[in-house]
Design a protein that fits this description.
- This is Glycerophosphodiester phosphodiesterase.
- The protein is of the alpha/beta class.
- It has a single domain, classed as TIM Barrel (Alpha-Beta Barrel), CATH 3.20.20.190.
- About 35% of the residues lie in helices and about 20% in strands.
- It has 9 helices and 9 strands.
- It is globular, with a radius of gyration of 18 Å.
- The relative contact order is 0.15.
- The model has no long low-confidence stretch (mean pLDDT about 95).
């Protein structure tokens, strides 16, 4: 199984998602070269790492992320919901994650936005990446096509990827129009024919989110180029070793 493993929001099965604890735990897994994270903006324009548009599920705060300053977000507990051992874990800034991963991990950074929800998100995120000289170690992805277009307008050297949970007939054309070299797609929409077509056109394919060994093996058998995004890098590692031993 030569497929690359991407830890979804860090090692989010064991640690609170999108926190430094989850990312550091992912780093300890020997088979994890990539981590996927989600980025939004605080009210005062600081890129922060959190998935939901609201604070309710993963912190002890309430309301929209964008309605809180970084100083306010910094006071929240983003770990206790996952277990007492993570009490006091904070929402990290993108800087926190970049500093932790620089030279150690590559990052799939999802731009979490809809329409004009976050003016300036793309530029703010790209500025931080350039500061750490990590532009060659990241892929900027989004469901929002306008965000992907904006990235290319600002700096065409940044690699971008469309996120989609569907299989439209014009998928390849859409990727070309957006100048995307990466596709993040719900695993159920992939088959060997589509994967081979995408790979032949220079598109890197990542399937999400697969936590069971059966699903991982299905993707690995389909195409060794598919990146497998999972909350369970430990399961991925065990599956990799099992398949490796079966060939000895």
């Amino acid at each position: 199984m030569n497929n690359l493993c991407v830890a979804h929001r860090g090692f989010s099965y064991k640690a609170p998602e999108n926190t430094i604890a989850a990312i550091q735990m992912a780093m300890k897994e020997p088979f994890v070269p990539w981590v996927e994270i989600d980025t939004q903006l605080s009210m005062d324009g600081i890129p922060v790492v959190i998935h939901d548009f609201t604070l309710n599920r993963t912190t002890n705060g309430k309301g929209l992320v964008k309605d809180h300053t970084w100083a306010q977000l910094q006071q929240l507990d983003a770990g206790s919901w996952k277990g007492r051992v993570f009490k006091g874990e904070r929402i990290p800034t993108l800087d926190d994650v970049l500093k932790s991963s620089c030279g150690r991990l590559r990052l799939n950074i999802e731009l979490k936005t809809k329409g004009d929800m976050y003016p300036g998100l793309e530029q703010a995120v790209m500025e931080r990446i350039l500061y750490y000289r990590m532009e060659n170690d990241v892929i900027l992805t989004s469901f929002d096509s306008d965000a992907l277009r904006k990235v290319k307008e600002l700096n065409s050297n940044f690699a971008t990827g469309l996120i989609i949970d569907a299989r439209p007939l014009d998928l390849l054309e859409r990727l070309k129009e957006l100048k995307c070299s990466f596709l993040s797609i719900g695993a159920s929409h992939l088959d060997s024919t589509l994967t081979s077509t995408l790979v032949s056109q220079g598109i890197t394919v990542m399937a999400w989110t697969v936590d069971d060994a059966t699903g991982m093996k299905r993707l690995a058998n389909m195409n060794s180029e598919i990146m497998i995004c999972t909350n369970r890098p430990d399961v991925w590692g065990a599956t990799f070793l099992e398949r490796k031993h079966s060939f000895w």
